[in-house]
Hints:
The protein is 50% helix and 4% strand.
Amino acid sequence: MKFKQIIIAILALFTVVGCTENFDELEKDPVALTANPAGQLTFTQLCMSGDGFYQWRTNLIYSGGFVQHYAGAWNVTEFGSKFKKDDGYATALWRNGYSNELKNVVDILEKTSTDPAAKNMNAVAKIMRVMVAQRITDIYGDIPYSEAGLGFSKGIVTPKYDKQEDIYTSFFKDLDDAYTQLNSGSGGTVKGDLFYNGDITKWKKLANTLRLRLGMRISEVKPAEAEKQVKAALQNGVFESNLDNCIMKHLDATFNDDPAAIDFRGNGLAYALVGNENGDHFSTLVINYLKDNGDPRLTMYATPKTTSGLVYGGAIQPGESLYEGVKPGLFQWEVPMGASSTSGIQSYFKQKTTPFLHVSYSEAQLLLAEAAFRGWVPGSAADYYKKGVEAGIKQLEIYGAAPAGQAAINTYLNAKPLVAGQEKEQIATELWITYIFNSIEAYSNWRRTGFPKLVPITNPDSETGGVTPTRLYYPNDEMQKNETNYLEALSRMGGKNDWLNKVWWDKN
C-alpha cells in the first residue's frame, strides 16, 4: 500500500509539470496508478537521484570525499577524507538500491517478459537494471544480482552473491539484447519514462553508451573483452551530442532523507549539499585544477570567496585570487583565514529542482579518447578529447550556469590540448571534472585509472593511515540474513569484509 501511495503522489504531481510524458492521461488511467510497469519505471528513475539518503552518504560523503571533489563539511572531512567507518553511510546504497530500485526493475522484467506488446518496456527495464546494479556492484564488488529481487515472484529470499566478472558478462548481454529488442515501429510505448519520454532512439543510444562505460571499466582486467565491447558500442551508436544526455529533471519537493518517508521528487544530492550548508566546498584539488588551467568552468561551478586569504576577515587584497578551495582533511573552520576565504558552490546546484546527470556525451567522448589512444577504435584521441571537454563545459548550462561562450571555450581547448605521454592522466582527470556531482562514477574511474593524483591525507586520526578505501563494505547484518552466500562472497576476498579490498576490475 505504501508503494502504491508513493506512485500515486508522484504521478499526480507530475501532471502539472508537463516536462516529460503526458501524465494527465496516466492519471486518468486507473491502471497507471497501481504498481504496474509504468509507475514502477517512474519510481525507479526518481529514486536513482532523488534518494537523499544514499546521495548524501554514498555520493557526497564517501565518494565525493574519497575522490576529493569536496572538502570542509564535518561529515565529508571526518569520514570521506579521514576514511573513518560509519556503517550507516557505508551501507546506504545497498539498502535503498535493492529495496527501492532493483526490486521494482526486476518486477517490471517479470511482468513484461512474455508480453509482445511490452517488448520496449521490457528492453528499457533491462537497461535500467544494468544502471542500478552497476552502481551497486562497482561500490561493493560481488553482489546478489541474478537472484536479486525475486523474493515475491520466486521465493528467493537468500540470493547468491554473483561474482562481479559474471555480473559484467550479464551487463553486456543485457545491453546488447535491449539494443536489439528496442523497436520504434513495434513493441509498444514506454509509459512513465522520465528520462526520455519513451523515445526509443534515445534509449538505444543510452544502452550503447552504458556499454562503452562498462567496456572501459574492465580495461585493466580484461582488455581484449573491453576492446570488443567498446567497438560494438561505437558501431551500434553512442551519444552524439548533449541532447542525448540521460538527465533526471527534479521538482520543488520537500527535502527528506528518512528512509521510511523519502520524497524522491527533489534532487537528493542537492538535499545533501543543503544539509551540509556552509560546510561543503570544492577541494583545493578541484579549484586549483580549474584555476591553474584557465578552465571556464571555474566560475560555473564555484562562487568567489568573500574575505581575504591573507588577512583574517579582511577585504580581498589587490592581486589576490578570488577562488580558493579547502584542503582535503581540513574542516572548514580550520581554514587558516576562515571559511569565507574559500569559494562556495554555486546556488543552482543546491536547488530541489536541480537536474541530475546520469550519463553524458562528454563522458562518452572522453572514454572514446582513451579507447582511441589504446588503438581500439578509429579516430583521433585528441579530437575525441576536445569534443569531450567542450561538451563537459556546455553541459553545465542545464543547471542554470551562464554559457561560457564559444570563444572562451576555444581559447581553453587550444591552450590545453591532449599532450603526448600524458594522455591517460589528462583524459582521466577531465572525466573526474565531468563527473562532479556524480562522484560515485568518479570514484570508480579513479580506482580504474589512478587519476587524478589525490592530495595525500596525513591526518593522524585517519583509520586507514591515509590510504583511500577501494570499496564500501557489505552490511554486517547480511551475516544474519544471508549467511551462507555472504560468507562465500567474503571467502573470495580473503574472508574479511573490509573496505581496503579491491573489486574485480580494480587492477590499478
